[in-house]
Specification:
single chain, mainly alpha, 4 helices, 53% helix, 0% strand
């Protein structure tokens, strides 16, 4: 009865398309908002396979979080 509902076969049948440039840009902006610094941003972009060239980092870094000052 459930032979035709094998999850692996269903997953293999799905068409996978690469994300659009707009989707990649949106993902990079969201990552930049959650990054704690430049190194963190580079690691996050690299982990998701998003571009991390100097131009991309220059555009994204202003939207990244500013480190919160530590109390004295």
């Amino acid at each position: 009865m459930y032979d035709d509902l094998n999850p692996a076969q269903i997953a293999e049948a799905l068409e996978v398309t690469p994300p659009s440039l707009e989707a990649e840009a949106a993902a990079a902006r969201i990552l930049a908002r959650h990054a704690l610094g430049k190194e963190d941003l580079v690691l996050l972009l690299d982990a998701l396979g998003l571009p991390r060239d100097d131009d991309t980092l220059t555009n994204l870094f202003p939207s990244s979080r500013k480190p919160e000052p530590q109390p004295p």
